[in-house]
Amino acid sequence: MKLIQIVNNNGCSLPWLHAEVNVSPKHILPCCKYENGIKYDRIIDAWNGNEMTSVRNDFVNGKLPAKCWKCDVAEHEFSYMKWKGQSLMYEVNQYQDVDVVKAPVSINMILSGVCNLACRMCKPTSSSKFVEVIKPSAFLKNLYNDKVYAPNIDVESLRGFFVNAKSITFSGGEPLVDDSIFDIIQLANTESANLRTISFSTNMTAFRKDVIDYLKSLNVIVNFNVSIDGPKLIHEYIRVGCNWNTIVDNIRYLKSLSSKFHFGINTTQSALNVGYIPEFLQDIEKISTELDLKIERIKPSSILETHMHPASLPQHIKDVYIKKLSQAKGKSTLTNADWLIDTSIELMKKPAGNTELFIKFLNEFDLVAKTDYKTVYPEFDF
In which residue ranges of the chain is pLDDT below 70? Predict the structure, then answer.
């Protein structure tokens, strides 16, 4: 049987082509929707191990694996398995035999939680600075049920995993300051003869020069997907410790180094920025013009936790925001601009909110971060 036959039979090619890896702790998954990570000592052993083999066999036999239940949706609804699985088929030989399981073509790798910022939508597992900032608040510490893992990464356990890699995406923490990032990139480049792209989800406020110099020397496209969550004032409030001008200066510097360095924008939709999407788009357009920079994409993701969910805003504020966003549609030339607006409106209309919890979170984080939301959001009249 060929992979294309599985996809055409409403199955998924990801267990053959893709891996989501959390290196601290050591977990691997065939995709981000898969229920629970598979523990590993040597990652290539887990890739070829019993659970991944069982998942592949289920798809060969026309069954949906039990832990893939999140993709068990109606035909008209979004399925990550259909979207990602089918899009990856264009990157590989569609007629690859299902018995050929070398190593993943596409890898998303979450590094340690080492980070220099304390972003309000973050969590203890993803930012060492966040852990430090929320420490004085019992309320904030109790809000999260996350175990904080040591930042040590066993690079040797990854050996043999990159031999088939064409695309690798790193996130964290802040991957560009991670202690192990240089060694991992070097290993990947040594093992893979087919590596085409290396991507980073980055706050773009700091980076290791040795990593940048090494990336510049490689014959690959490097995508820096910069996290920006609003216009200057909003962004700096949300991401505690961030300086907007530093981001712009760092983009300018990296752009000057290599034509192989490309840039996109990641933005996280939350109660703290959905009302400022038009201003955000305007500031991104200003950066693009000022730096003569092509923005490859704007990729939104949504905060679903209740304490920062856009639906948790008071209703009268949501009404104002929704009217403002509706009037802004069609006015930006940036790719995905109207999609960002539409999803922000949709999030505010969901019944998932808890205004009391949102306000409590806002006040508690202001106390530990020594900030004041009233100087940033005059409409927050609570």
Answer: 73-94, 146-151
